[in-house]
Write a structure and sequence with these properties.
Distance between the termini: 45 Å
Number of strands: 4
Strand content: 25-35%
Largest sheet: 4 strands, mixed
Number of helices: 2
Strand order of the largest sheet: 1-2-3-4
């Protein structure tokens, strides 16, 4: 099957690439994050224009998490 051969090759190539270069998290602005209509649990994004007054920083890693049945973006610190 051509499709299964392609996927096997692709997955092996991806595994090799990630073992050498790491994982790339999608970079978004806060406005772009708001456009995600149905985030999936565990989805990670890197917000490039976060400006948090409590802990001053210009960017942050966030994960979509469901807590007590409610979904929310949680900052990973």
């Amino acid at each position: 099957n051509i499709w299964s051969d392609f996927m096997a090759t692709f997955i092996e190539s991806l595994r090799e690439y990630l073992s050498q270069n790491g994982v790339f998290i999608p970079r978004l602005t806060l406005a772009q994050r708001q456009l995600i209509q149905v985030p999936q649990e565990g989805q990670m994004i890197y917000i490039t224009d976060a400006n948090t007054p409590v802990i001053p920083r210009t960017a942050e890693l966030q994960i979509w998490q469901i807590v007590a049945g409610v979904g929310q973006w949680t900052v990973i610190v």
